[in-house]
């Protein structure tokens, strides 16, 4: 199937209509589309695999990073964290957090957050935070925090 367009052109003897392919080089177009699709899929997969995403990794290379992690923390262990895990499961894998706090939106001590990283110099760092509700993870935050 070829996509064509009608072209009307004025000549000295009047109007002349002819048809020409809309995409003159279908093989080139197919190659460009395949390249763009491959690039987009690779970027998406890489962004999903990297803990801080592609942008976080690039910022970490360009900007000063000041991250202190909790004892026992590793990226491999962090990747094992998921919504629904219990506090006990999390601590068994990651170890003790650096800090724990009751969330502002709750009067209950069963809603809290824990962090496994911070910036000693109060500047750019890789943030690792889990939020809990009733003893189970409800949110996982991983980002390159800019300050």
CATH class of the largest domain: Alpha Beta
Poorly predicted runs are none
Query: Shape, please?
Result: elongated
Q: How many independent structural domains?
A: 2
Mean pLDDT: 83
Can you walk through the features of this model?
With 147 residues, the chain is an alpha+beta fold. The chain has 2 domains: 4-49; 59-145, Beta-lactamase Inhibitory Protein, Chain:B, domain 1 (2-Layer Sandwich), CATH 3.30.1450. Helices cover 32% and strands 33% of the residues. It contains 4 helices and 8 strands. The longest helix is centred in the first third of the chain and has 24 residues, at 26-49. It starts with a strand and ends with a strand.
Set down the secondary structure blueprint:
Layout: E1 4-11, E2 14-21, H1 26-49, H2 53-62, E3 68-69, H3 75-79, H4 87-94, E4 99-102, E5 111-115, E6 117-118, E7 125-133, E8 136-145
List keywords for this structure.
4-stranded antiparallel β-sheet, 4 helices, two-stranded antiparallel ribbon, 147 residues, 2 domains, Beta-lactamase Inhibitory Protein, Chain:B, domain 1
Summarize the structure.
With 147 residues, the protein is of the alpha+beta class. The protein is built from four helices and eight strands.
